[in-house]
Amino acid sequence: xxxxxxxxxxxxxxxxxxxxxxxxxxxxxxxxxxxxxxxxxxxxxxxxxxxxxxxxxxxxxxxxxxxxxxxxxxxxxxxxxxxxxxxxxxxxxxxxxxxxxxxxxxxxxxx
Length: 111
Prior knowledge:
Elements lengths: L1 H22 L18 H12 L16 H41 L1
């Protein structure tokens, strides 16, 4: 039963991640005819603002890999955040477990 429950939860999480990207509709182009990014982040807005302030600004370097769309970039950012949070949670869990084991060992030796 537990195995089926975990599988159902995994499928639900995958569907919750995929359905919003599948069901979202692209908005119409803006007044300049430029395509509107649905999941545009602060980096894109900052780049556009820098272009307005200083049109002759040159980038220091080019990205190694350019995602195909803003949605993929957003997904990669979320994946990076999830992996980081998982690593931090694992580290904290191991640290708390070690401290608990150490305290139990010390209490067992003093009795």
